[in-house]
């Protein structure tokens, strides 16, 4: 058995440890430097880590731009609506 394994709770079943392989390219991390990102995500190189950081940044920008577009659409649609105020009498 290469790498480190931990007991998953099931009899005779051991799963690979999360630090066994790079999170991006799945290269083995056994006996090599480990580059961590966001606390618990291991990478085999600075390049793999940087690529993940760039993907996360692009995803956040896309999410934020989509969110701001929805927000401005909601503001525009409310601005064009007429709201009546007054008293209604019902008999």
Automatic annotation (TrEMBL):
InterPro entries: FLZ1/2/3, Zf-FLZ_dom, Znf_NHR/GATA. Residues 74-85 have a biased composition (Polar residues). A zinc finger (FLZ-type) spans 17-60. Keywords: Metal-binding, Zinc, Zinc-finger. Residues 55-91 are annotated as: Disordered. Gene3D superfamilies: Erythroid Transcription Factor GATA-1, subunit A (3.30.50.10). Pfam families: zf-FLZ (PF04570). Residues 17-60 form the FLZ-type domain. It comes from the Eukaryota. Belongs to the FLZ family. PANTHER family: FCS-LIKE ZINC FINGER 1-RELATED, FLZ-TYPE DOMAIN-CONTAINING PROTEIN. This is FLZ-type domain-containing protein. The lineage of its organism: Eukaryota, Viridiplantae, Streptophyta, Embryophyta, Tracheophyta.
């Amino acid at each position: 058995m290469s790498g480190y394994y931990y007991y998953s709770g099931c009899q005779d079943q051991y799963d690979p440890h999360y630090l066994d392989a790079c999170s991006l390219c799945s290269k083995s991390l056994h006996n090599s430097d480990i580059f961590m990102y966001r606390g618990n995500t291991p990478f085999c190189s600075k390049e793999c880590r940087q690529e993940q950081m760039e993907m996360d940044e692009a995803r956040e920008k896309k999410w934020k731009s989509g969110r701001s577009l929805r927000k401005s659409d909601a503001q525009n649609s409310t601005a064009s609506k007429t709201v009546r105020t007054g008293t209604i009498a019902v008999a």
